[in-house]
Amino acid sequence: QGNMAFAGKYEFESDENYDEFVKKIGLSSDKIELGRNCKVITEVVQNGNDFTWTQHFPGGRTMSNSFTIGQEADMETMGGKKFKATARMENGKIVADFPNYHHTAEICGDKLIEISNVCGIVYKRTSKRIA
């Protein structure tokens, strides 16, 4: 599982605790509806420690964060808020602290597993590799 393990395209497969999580982080109800069981395609471009992490939503909307492991970067939350964060690599996982939640991403076989935690509510999103 080399350094390029994250590069690829992944399609949303399942999630857990979506409603509790997005309500807790304060997403508006229209954004909550848009995101529910949404077939998001996550595209990860990786060049060493440099990442571009793009989510393609049905209907053509995209959201993209670019960052370098260990360096502060400008990022955007699910709700569109801008903030600064430093992503770290811990035991093969990418770890970042968003303004109101803690986020990890890892590759398990052909799946991208993303876990966000806010006040003990753990949101888990699983996506399967499609490219």
Automatic annotation (TrEMBL):
InterPro entries tied to this protein: Calycin, Fatty_acid-bd, ILBP
Gene Ontology cellular component annotations, sorted alphabetically: cytoplasm
PROSITE patterns xrefs: FABP
Domain of life per record: Eukaryota
Transport keyword on record: yes
Gene3D superfamilies: 2.40.128.20
SUPFAM superfamilies cross-referenced by the UniProt entry: Lipocalins
GO MF annotation terms: lipid binding
Residues of the Cytosolic fatty-acid binding proteins domain: 8-25
Alphabetical UniProt keywords: Cytoplasm, Lipid-binding, Transport
Major subcellular site: cytoplasm
Subcellular location, record wording: Cytoplasm
Keyword Transport applies: yes
Family, as annotated: Belongs to the calycin superfamily. Fatty-acid binding protein (FABP) family.
Protein name listed in UniProt: Gastrotropin
Source organism of the structure: Cuculus canorus (Common cuckoo)
Lineage summary: Eukaryota, Metazoa, Chordata, Craniata, Vertebrata
